[in-house]
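Record 1 of the preview.
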Amino acid sequence: MQERKLDQIDRRILRALARDGRLSNNQLAEEVGLSPSPCWQRTRRLENEGFIRGYSAILDRAMLGYAETVIIEVTLDRHDEATLAEFGRAMANIPEVLEVYLTTGEYDYFLKVAVAGTRGYEEFLRNKLYHVPGIRHSRSSFTLRCLKQSGAPVPQ
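->
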């Protein structure tokens, strides 16, 4: 399947929605310089083609009791399909796990996890992560501050 090229208006729509996914169609149309009907059609096309995968709210984790973010690097015992699939299922079912990346290099996976301080982290390790079969080793780092958080870059 050949990937469709985005024009300037498509990119403006994507940038505007990445900044604020709650824009009404009228607000979006005004911001990108279109009338509402063509703007709505373009936005629906971008959704249908998969450029826009969905809309969500960015929650304040600290207000929800999960103020700390921990980066965990994980090495598995084995790398067969069953082990990889089981690890993926386990990570998908742990609410504190925000993101999981299969990586190259010394570790197999990179996890981004939200916890309630060091006690919450210890509880996460003891009651959740260490119960996942196939983990050989992990290494963790607490983040101090998030300097940038964003979605996908939209080409100029």
